[in-house]
Amino acid sequence: MTVISAGTAEGGQELLSRSELTAKELLREVGSVLRLSEAEAALLAEVETEAPEDQTMIINMGPQHPSTHGVLRLMLELQGETVLRCKPIIGYLHTGMEKTGEALTYMQGGTNVTRMDYLSPLNNELVFSMAVEKLLGIDGDIPERAVWMRMLLSELNRMSSHLLFLATNGMDLGAVSMMLYGWREREDVLRFFQKVTGLRMNHNFIRPGGVAADLPAGWRDDVLAILEGLPSRLEEYDILMTGQPIWRERLQGVGVITAQEAIALGATGPILRSTGVAWDLRRDMPYLHYDELEFDVIVGQYGDAYDRYSIRFNEIRESMRIVYQILERMPSGDFRIQNKKVTPPPRARIDESMEALIHHFKIFTEGFKVPEGEVYVAIESPRGEIGCYIVSDGSSNPYRMHVRAPSFVNIQTMPHMMRGGLVADAVAVISSVDPVLGEVDR
Amino acid sequence: MSDATGTVENAVEIQHGCPVQDSHGQRVLHASRDQYVSVIKALADEGYEMCVDLTGADYLAMPHRTIGFGIQPERFELVVNLLSLSQRKRIRLRVQVPADDVTMPTLFDIHPGTEAHERETFDMFGIVFIGHPDMTRILMPEDWDGHPLRKDYSQGAIPVQFKGAHS
Question: What is the ipTM of this complex?
């Protein structure tokens, strides 16, 4: 065995007691890093942050806490029940997916990225494929049917992800029946995914050049069954939660963040929209054919947990509206690009042509070569902007593959949302940020 | 890089003192390390109010790459993606970081949201951000050796490290 040296002594990641902190570190942890005017900072400073050390306590929440959505560990400094400081500690699920991505070919890369945000795998595959296609210079040649299929799957995925948010948000706040309903509705969508892609999750279905297979017979009826069953159930949940006084009490005014803070911290998705900033990449920087569709960007006003809940709830309805339009407009034709460089020959050709067999073998063993260059592509995932930065050195593996994960950035807003709140509200805040630890840690 | 747009003879567009490159239709600025903070600040004032991504790349395995614009390629590169919500534009900055002095100034004072990104870049590439309030590892354990995304950090050849375990 190689002897491992005693560590690099780069300092702990834990929340330290106040006496061990530098002034700048303390400022960051109490949320004063945002260059606010003094008047605004005074408004935020209602909470006494100069608490004497013997009256405060630093506790761990997680990494094995049921409401931290995986292995998120929060260190909280408490005075009584009030949260004075909070520091998220991550990395417990780090499996080096960006390093793994360098060893996989562009063909295999989808299997890797789809496991990052495991609640919206198709969005991950989509952004990776779009980045590779841009490097190949074929991003304008993707067949229409493939583009519309990508939009169909991406919107259904947004619905399934938000339905699971309703479930976990309900569970975290004590509405346990909502948990069961949310999982049930999501399962309807996943059943459709299984029929189309063969898998409930981690599909590797959207690939550079198009999608892996055509839609199966009867897909339209399946989608319509989902779309027709959902509205009456969403209305039930509206009655169960939205209008319910306890639910409103638990969420309204909890975990407030301003637009200025959200932008400074790089937060995107429902968190940014809850502060009143109407920013949705589908509308503001359209990709695929989103510019041809009619839908609304749902925006909140107060930046609290209730706004984030309402935004996700109504985004399900907007996604349904989009899916109806996609159903109307789904063209026929190829589901992947007929470019011999990236597309394997059809199965039937392999039986009759030696060249097709060789071609098929080479594309799956060696992969295809991508010209030198670097590119950053971003799309709107259910959690915000998911971006993919790829550097190619001209070989068939990415030289560097980086995914800008929305949850990784959004988690930074937690200390600001929790500061001055109660421990019980910390759970509501975590839930409303809706982090997926798989993409936080990658 | 293969693109020949970067020759000095061609009229190169300059923004904030940095040459502008078109990479697949995306606007890329090549800033030097000294210009870095002032360019980001100038861009922030210009309307690029959000720093969406900050990451690095290790070009150890691409020793003969060229960037053009008379820029000397170095081993490390810092890549910063900025977004303007008001103008619906993106811009990317690429900064060369030499292997013998792997440090960069922090962007924390301009974009506090880069805090986690800079920690991740430090963790994965060993690029130290001067002035960062908490320059510790973020994804790897705090007593880990090496920086995994460097090209000389091989895959699969590292014994699994556990705190307090006998080796």
Answer: 0.86
Hey, how many other C-beta atoms are within 10 angstroms of the C-beta on A245?
Answer: 7
Most B CBs within 10 A among A8, A403, A407, hence the mutation to make, goes to A8
Q: Tell me if A210 sits within 8 A of A334, measured CB to CB.
A: yes
> Could you give the CA distance from residue B71 to residue B88 in angstroms, rounded to a whole number?
29
Q: How far is CA A195 from the centre of its chain?
A: 23
Please tell me if residue A362 touches chain B, with a CB cutoff of 8 Å.
no
Nearest residue of A to residue B107, measured between CA atoms: A264
- A19: buried, middle or exposed (CB in 10 Å: 19+, 13-18, 0-12)? exposed
Residue partners of B130: CB distance under 8 A and separation at least 6? B103, B104, B105, B106
Q: Least CA distance to A401: which residue of chain B?
A: B57
No. of helices (H) and no. of strands (E), chain B: 2, 8
pLDDT digits (tens, 9 = 90+) for B96-153: 999 888 899 988 888 888 889 999 999 899 899 988 888 888 888 877 888 888 888 8
Contact B145 A4 (CB under 8 A): yes
Distance from CA of B104 to the nearest CA of A (A): 17
Q: How far is B162 from chain A (nearest CA, A)?
A: 10
Contact B137 A409 (CB under 8 A): no
What are B134-145's pLDDT values in tens digits? 888 888 887 788
d(CA A185, CA A235): 13
Contacts of A215 (CB under 8 A, 6+ apart): A149, A196, A335
Could you report the per-residue pLDDT of A177-234, keeping only the tens digit for each? 888 998 998 999 999 999 999 998 889 899 988 898 889 999 999 999 999 999 999 9
B90 and A376 within 8 Å at the Cβ level: the answer is yes
* Cα A339 from Cα A141, distance rounded (Å): 9
